[in-house]
Amino acid sequence: MKLAPPSTPHILLIDDNCDGLLVRRSLLEEAGCTVQVARNGEEGLRLFQAAKFDLIVTDFRMPGIDGIEVIKRIRATQPDARVILLSGFVDPLGLNEENTGADAVIAKSSHEPANLVRAVKRLLNRTWRKPPASQKKPRSRAGATVAGF
């Protein structure tokens, strides 16, 4: 009896930098993913609406619709989507998961390739989406919460 091959993760990669798209696409394909690319936020949102993606990786600073707006629009239609935000301005702007709505925020640096692959694997292996702190329900005064299913 033959087992069905594991499904290949389908990733949407959004970046206005052609070189960045090429390098990240190659990196993610080497990691076993299929990658569809968009060269700006508008194109990324059109592709997102037209197909199902297991994960979205978006740049922060792009002309027109930036990465934060891309994430907001994705969350409006698919709140449990897995999203990674990339930026060269993580530290200067204080970008993090809580203030961007992303599941992971990765700085563009020499460590980016390893951090990106690690975050992609971690998020693809997660069966549920952990909401950013900004979306979590506040705890009661006693610090206790009601257990959910």
Description:
By secondary structure, the protein is α/β, with parallel strands linked by helices. It is 38% helix and 16% strand. The protein has 6 helices and 5 strands, in the order E-H-E-H-E-H-E-H-H-E-H. Strands 2-1-3-4-5 form a 5-stranded parallel beta sheet, with helices on both faces. Helix 3 links the parallel strand 3 and strand 4. It starts with 9 loop residues before the first strand and ends in a 24-residue tail after the last helix.
Short overview:
With 149 residues, this protein is an alpha/beta fold. It is built from six helices and five strands.
Indicate the topology:
Elements: E1 10-14, H1 18-30, E2 34-38, H2 41-50, E3 55-59, H3 67-77, E4 83-87, H4 90-93, H5 97-100, E5 104-107, H6 112-125
Parallel strand pairs: 1-2, 1-3, 3-4, 4-5
Any key phrases for this structure?
38% helix; alpha/beta; 149 residues; disordered C terminus
Q: Can you tell me the residue ranges where pLDDT is under 50 for at least 5 consecutive residues?
A: 1-5, 137-149
- The end-to-end span amounts to 36 Å
Rounded to the nearest angstrom, the radius of gyration is: 16 Å
> Count of helical segments?
6
Which class best fits the helix and strand makeup?
alpha/beta
Strand order of the largest sheet: 2-1-3-4-5
The proportion of strand residues reads: 15-25%
Largest sheet: 5 strands, parallel
H and E string: EHEHEHEHHEH
- DSSP summary, beta strand count: 5
Look at the structure and give the mean pLDDT. 86
Question: Overall 3D geometry?
Answer: globular
The amount of helix comes to 25-40%
